[in-house]
């Protein structure tokens, strides 16, 4: 009994001691949750600051930061400038990822099948229904494509991944743009929905002739082969953190209002065509400047020390120039009474 | 027995008569526990109605009749998920009911003592499995098996013009209305079976023995004595099983295919109200999208409510 009480007292004092450390709460996108988690872990052991990030989805993150129930929000979908100014919010990018089509065809190896944006759109529109369609066959003369019907798999849950993928199809196909459009969840013309990246991967894996799209990390974990997509220069680079970086290097970050930038279909022969970045949302004039300073300090730390962690989890770090640009931006964008909340050195 | 009314005050006397302080605290605690449920339920209905009102107002009756669910153009018609919910739940009930009755009759009437315990434990264990585990099992084990051994052969051997062929048309990957119903059936089975067993055990031994004494066969005893004896309870359990199936979310989301259009066959993919909410609520950024999902929640609440009322009516008032 005495032992139990002693243990209980020990436990309570442990709780007490952690309560003294600074705790920052954030919520939002699920896509960057693993890398934020890894950064937060290292950061905590170095500084004692606890970052509590809840991956509840981009929509939830946006709602919670607007209601100020969290210290920072996170979203895969950049907010428009008008929406940012309406709610007094500021957004900045953290890491990048790529979206990759995966295919289940007997005997197909990764990277062998080539597709274009407009072919991809017509497959998802239900206009190309067989793998031996002349349009697919003509750009894949080295493959003997079977007359297998194409089963389209998409995300069932609302997702930033779907937003980027449908944005890309919207960019490449006028018909997709007018009939379906781009959003976290759309009215898919055909196909069936899997829950999450793993749900999509599972359906593709189980169905001969299926095509789906997943975050890059899932193509590395799963055995389903991926296809290549023609980039804006007609080349077919493989998906990798290198080709995602190439896409971001071609983008014009400094002139994107509200940092709302699209990395889709960028120039550069080595650029992967479906690349996206994920964002942090803060109040422009925070009511708790000290907490916001801690948040910026944390992401500053992530910018400088987090690249290896990001790469190990299959995210692409932002280019150096972009990081420098954003770090300078913090001084002017997040202020209280005309004074910068946090100045990156 | 008739004297018991003298020693036991009526209910209203018990509620209001004064007693010791401890008794009073105990009574008021019980009272607040009971009213808390009512308040919570009223709160849920009110907030669902307020939250979903913009959707009802914008789409009116089309919210129930249209199957166009388009977050991009902000048009929401919930016919697909509503029909999907009803079909999967009733199919699940249809599949689970005979099995549940079979299990419980066997346990009560025929089972050797040595087997009774393991079977009863297995049934209860089934009830304890979290629904996400059923979902993963459905996705990774049941769906591929079903596609390979049932869907493919049916697709190959039935003419697509025949009535039966139309019922089984669909992409053979195991993600469809029927597999979702199967998973649901497995999920409501243990609950129904264990309550059925309890019900059958309430039949007095004398009644059963008397029926056997008159020369009735076991089947006749079950059909003409046991089932009629517990009929009301049976209906109640069936309705509660249906209620559970209506609201089940995770397992169904994994395996139903998640398309909002109306299902055309048993092997077509579909969606349910609960799966649609689970899929889209986290990323519903526009006001109308959230409102439409909240309105769906209210619809599900109403369906469950109707099922419970129906159960009450069927059971009737206890005399």
UniProtKB/TrEMBL annotation, chain A:
One of its GO terms (biological process) is phosphate ion transmembrane transport. InterPro entries: ABC_phos-bd_PstS, PBP_domain, Phosphate-bind_PstS. GO terms for molecular function: phosphate ion binding. Keywords: Phosphate transport, Signal, Transport. It holds the Pfam family PBP_like_2. SUPFAM superfamilies: Periplasmic binding protein-like II. Residues 1-21 form the signal peptide. Residues 20-301 form the PBP domain. GO terms for cellular component: ATP-binding cassette (ABC) transporter complex. Part of the ABC transporter complex PstSACB involved in phosphate import. Belongs to the PstS family. The complex is composed of two ATP-binding proteins (PstB), two transmembrane proteins (PstC and PstA) and a solute-binding protein (PstS). This is Phosphate-binding protein PstS. It comes from Zymomonas mobilis.
From TrEMBL, chain B:
The keyword Cell membrane applies. GO terms for biological process: phosphate ion transport. The keyword Phosphoprotein does not apply. GO terms for cellular component: plasma membrane. GO terms for molecular function: phosphate transmembrane transporter activity. Keywords: Cell inner membrane, Cell membrane, Membrane, Phosphate transport, Transmembrane, Transmembrane helix, Transport. It is found in: Cell inner membrane; Cell membrane. It holds the Pfam family BPD_transp_1. Its main location: membrane. It comes from the Bacteria. Residues 82-311 form the ABC transmembrane type-1 domain. The chain crosses the membrane at residues 29-55, 75-108, 120-147, 167-189, 233-256, 291-315. It is a multi-pass membrane protein. Part of the binding-protein-dependent transport system for phosphate; probably responsible for the translocation of the substrate across the membrane. Belongs to the binding-protein-dependent transport system permease family. CysTW subfamily. PANTHER family: PHOSPHATE TRANSPORT SYSTEM PERMEASE PROTEIN PST (PTHR30425), PHOSPHATE TRANSPORT SYSTEM PERMEASE PROTEIN PSTC (PTHR30425:SF1). This is Phosphate transport system permease protein. It comes from Zymomonas mobilis.
């Amino acid at each position: 009994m005495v032992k139990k009480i002693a243990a209980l007292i020990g436990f309570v004092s442990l709780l007490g001691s952690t309560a003294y450390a600074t705790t920052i709460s954030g919520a939002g996108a699920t896509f960057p949750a693993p890398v934020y988690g890894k950064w937060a872990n290292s950061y905590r052991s170095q500084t004692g600051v606890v970052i509590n990030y809840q991956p509840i989805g981009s929509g939830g993150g946006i709602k919670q930061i607007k209601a100020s129930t969290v210290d920072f929000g996170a979203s895969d979908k950049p907010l428009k400038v008008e929406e940012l100014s309406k709610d007094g919010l500021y957004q900045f990018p953290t890491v990048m990822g790529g979206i990759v089509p995966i295919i289940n065809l007997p005997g197909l190896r990764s990277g062998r099948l080539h597709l274009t944006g407009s072919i991809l759109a017509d497959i998802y529109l239900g206009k190309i229904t067989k793998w031996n369609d002349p349009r697919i066959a003509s750009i894949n003369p080295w493959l003997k494509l079977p007359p297998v019907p194409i089963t389209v798999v998409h995300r069932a849950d609302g997702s930033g991944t779907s937003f980027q993928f449908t944005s890309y199809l919207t960019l490449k196909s006028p018909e997709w743009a007018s009939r379906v459009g781009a959003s976290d969840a759309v009215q898919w013309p055909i196909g069936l929905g899997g829950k999450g990246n793993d749900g999509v991967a599972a359906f593709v894996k189980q169905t001969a002739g299926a095509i789906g799209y997943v975050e890059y990390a899932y193509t590395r974990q799963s055995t389903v082969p991926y296809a290549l997509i023609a980039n804006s220069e007609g080349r077919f680079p493989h998906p990798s953190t290198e080709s995602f970086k190439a896409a971001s290097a071609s983008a014009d970050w400094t002139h994107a209002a509200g940092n709302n930038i699209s990395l889709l279909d960028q120039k550069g022969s080595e650029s992967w065509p479906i690349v996206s970045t994920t964002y942090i949302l803060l109040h422009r004039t925070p009511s708790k400047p000290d907490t916001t300073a801690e948040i910026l300090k944390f992401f500053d730390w992530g910018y400088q020390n987090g690249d290896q962690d990001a790469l190990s989890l299959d995210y692409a770090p932002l280019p150096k120039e972009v990081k420098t640009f954003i770090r300078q931006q913090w001084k002017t964008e997040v202020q209280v009474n005309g004074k910068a909340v946090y100045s990156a050195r | 027995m008739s004297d018991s009314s003298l020693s036991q005050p009526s209910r209203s006397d018990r509620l209001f008569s004064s007693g010791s302080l401890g008794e009073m605290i105990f009574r008021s605690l019980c009272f607040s526990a009971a009213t808390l449920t009512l308040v919570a339920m009223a709160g849920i209905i009110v907030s669902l109605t307020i939250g979903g009102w913009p959707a009802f107002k914008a789409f009116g009756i089309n919210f129930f009749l249209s199957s166009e669910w388009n977050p991009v153009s902000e048009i929401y018609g919930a016919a697909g998920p509503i029909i999907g919910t009803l079909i999967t739940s009733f199919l699940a009930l249809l599949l689970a009911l005979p099995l549940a009755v079979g299990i419980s009759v066997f346990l009560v009437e025929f089972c050797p003592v040595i087997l009774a315990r393991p079977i009863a434990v297995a049934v209860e264990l089934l009830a304890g499995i979290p629904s996400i585990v059923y979902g993963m099992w459905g996705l990774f084990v049941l769906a591929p098996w079903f596609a390979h051994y049932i869907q493919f052969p049916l697709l190959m051997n039935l003419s697509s013009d025949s009535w039966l062929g139309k019922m089984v048309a669909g992409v053979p990957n195991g993600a469809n209305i029927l597999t979702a119903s199967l998973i649901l059936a497995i999920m409501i089975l243990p609950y129904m079976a264990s309550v059925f067993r309890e019900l059958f055990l309430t039949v007095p031994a004398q009644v059963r023995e008397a029926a056997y004494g008159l020369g009735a066969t076991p089947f006749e005893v079950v059909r003409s004595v046991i089932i009629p004896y517990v009929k009301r309870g049976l209906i109640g359990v069936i309705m509660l099983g249906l209620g559970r199936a209506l609201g089940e979310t995770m397992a169904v989301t994994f395996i139903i295919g998640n398309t909002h259009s109306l299902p055309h066959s048993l092997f077509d993919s579909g969606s349910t109200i609960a799966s649609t909410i689970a899929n889209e609520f986290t990323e519903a950024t526009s006001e109308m999208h959230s409102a439409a999902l909240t309105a769906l929640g209210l619809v599900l609440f109403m369906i469950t409510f109707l099922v419970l009322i129906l159960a009450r009516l069927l059971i009737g008032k206890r005399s």
